[in-house]
Design goal:
Number of strands: 4
Number of domains: 1
CATH architecture: 2-Layer Sandwich
Structural class: alpha+beta
Distance between the termini: 29 Å
Number of helices: 3
CATH topology: Ribosomal Protein S5, domain 2
Helix content: 25-40%
Strand order of the largest sheet: 1-2-4-3
Largest sheet: 4 strands, mixed
Length: 116
């Protein structure tokens, strides 16, 4: 993902946590806030509760790849943060993808969602 599509600074993360809406399921928590920009930015926060650095990076890489593949379907103008829960280590890639897409639908972040 290009730098313009990533949420990077601590200040940006704090704004989303404080003023954004949150959605969750069994595996992930999602924070969303409108950013007033022409594109959406996505960030990931994997805590030490998930595991050691190898495990955390594996989870983060999987989530980044899922977002990269589905980025064209995400609405513009949002800051999005994904936080995985402890049990995300024990699920497959397809289950993680399903959980992330479920939260995109729950947060009304997919472009073609309102057309059905």
């Amino acid at each position: 993902m290009n730098k313009e599509y990533r949420l990077r600074t601590n200040e940006d993360f704090k704004k989303v946590y404080k003023k954004g809406k949150n959605y969750w399921n069994r595996n992930l928590t999602l924070y969303v806030k409108k950013n007033g920009l022409k594109n959406s930015r996505i960030g990931f926060s994997v805590t030490k509760k998930v595991g050691n650095s190898v495990v955390r990076n594996k989870v983060r890489r999987r989530m980044k790849e899922i977002c990269r593949l589905n980025f064209d379907n995400i609405k513009e103008g949002y800051d999005i943060i994904f936080i995985p829960k402890k049990n995300v280590v024990n699920i497959t890639y397809l289950e993680l993808e399903s959980a992330m897409l479920h939260l995109f639908v729950k947060g009304n972040l997919l472009k073609n969602q309102g057309e059905n």
